[in-house]
Amino acid sequence: MRLTNRQTKEMKRLNKYLLLSNSLTIADEKEKKKKLAEKSKVILGMGNLLEGNFQFKNLRQQLIYAGYEIGPGEYLVRTILLAGILSGIIYLIMSSLLISAFSFFLGFVIRSFLLKRAIRIRNQLATQQLIQALGIMANSLRAGYSFLQVIKLISEESPKPLGKEFGKVIQNVNLGLSLEESFEQLKTSFNNPDLEMVLTSILIQRESGGDLSRLLESIQETMIGRMRVKDEVRTLTAQGRLSMWVIMFVPVGIALYLQVVNPDYFHLMFQHILGWVMIFMAISGVLLGWFIINKIVSIEV
């Protein structure tokens, strides 16, 4: 009986500690969420201030192409913060204002590169999903589905980003917009000529009449052929694209290595006008080489 009482007391004590630890964990999570929400409100407020004073039509459209659900002002504020953090870290490591200022500028370049990369990846996903969607649309039309039922089916079956955007088409039609207006809004969500070709062909075919399922299959075959040619071109130009990035980053890497290993050796470049001229010529040569190789390997299909 004594052993049972002791076990009962220990169980009560353990339950007490568990409840206390759970309450502390929940309180910590709530505090973290509160701080994160406050930071997000500050960034959003600064972004709205920028948007109120400046117009960012081109940037706004690029953010839509990339699928970012933020405004241009908030995007710029986040970019400035990230560039400032990168610049501060570089200054703490290398104690050089010049390199720190360069890294601040580099933060904007990296952010712009990531935005363009997001646009490119989203377009590639949309093209791949569109090829599959065209086959589903053609088969569904032959099975007796109406065109709007087919669009709804694509919005439900296709993953993001295409399924989400086709879902917006259905929402716009239900709100009273015509199919032409809904398709025009869909075109502005992507920088994708294949999608524009498909939507334009569908609208023309609906006005002129004919076998829409056969048209969709024909477009699908054309897109598959183009995709195959693009993959072959990408494979053949892989070495050139690798050389482009090597030319871009190897000189920068060597400069950073010299700055860390032997700062006095590299600081001589900043103490004489000839060193500045050499740095300028080196940067110009790297950028020129990158630009020329990029033009050579960028083949439109």
TrEMBL record:
Compartmental location: Cell membrane
Domain Type II secretion system protein GspF, residue spans: 136-258
Keyword presence, Transmembrane helix: yes
Signal peptide range in chain numbering: none
Membrane topology listed for this record: Multi-pass membrane protein
Transmembrane intervals: 80-110, 242-261, 273-293
Keyword line: Cell membrane, Membrane, Transmembrane, Transmembrane helix
Entry superkingdom: Bacteria
PANTHER family: INTEGRAL MEMBRANE PROTEIN-RELATED, PILUS ASSEMBLY PROTEIN
Protein name: Type II secretion system protein GspF domain-containing protein
Native source species: Sutcliffiella horikoshii
